[in-house]
Design goal:
This protein is mainly α. It has five helices and no strands. Helix 1 runs antiparallel to helix 2, helix 1 runs parallel beside helix 4 and helix 4 runs antiparallel to helix 5. The radius of gyration is 23 Å and the shape is elongated.
């Protein structure tokens, strides 16, 4: 068996593991800790490294894109909880806002990537393929 790549990793399982890890870490009692920021960044990097975005774009659906955006946003919330708490903000009030903004940003990014890869009608550059104007005599 070769090394794992984005093509042979179960996409739903990858998101499920990231979701389970985020929920289990954030369910701990007490204040947020710096290690949670590190774990959040690691989870985001694992999803980014092993999630097959090209498949996601070919088989694009709101459900798949929303699931991906939701998990990435939840991992981002885990990442920013301790810094928010450190500057005196209540993470329990701010994290839902961070989640909504992050999920919306990821959904928008996925949508732009999908629409950017659609085949567009080929338009030749100006002057290419156009017949020359007939020249008047004396020119």
């Amino acid at each position: 068996m070769g090394t794992p790549s984005a093509r042979n990793v179960d996409q739903a399982a990858l998101l499920g593991v990231a979701l389970a890890a985020t929920v289990s870490i954030s369910a701990a009692e007490g204040p947020w800790e710096p290690i949670e920021t590190v774990v959040g960044l690691v989870l985001i990097s694992v999803v980014a490294a092993y999630y097959d975005f090209s498949t996601s774009l070919r088989e694009w659906s709101w459900a798949r894109s929303t699931a991906l955006a939701s998990v990435i946003a939840l991992c981002w919330c885990l990442t920013v909880a301790w810094p928010l708490q450190s500057v005196g903000l209540n993470p329990y009030w701010w994290l839902p806002i961070v989640w909504i903004l992050t999920a919306g940003a990821v959904l928008g990014w996925l949508r732009r990537r999908r629409h950017g890869r659609r085949s567009r009608p080929s338009v030749p550059p100006v002057g290419v393929g156009q017949a020359e104007k007939p020249r008047r005599s004396g020119d």
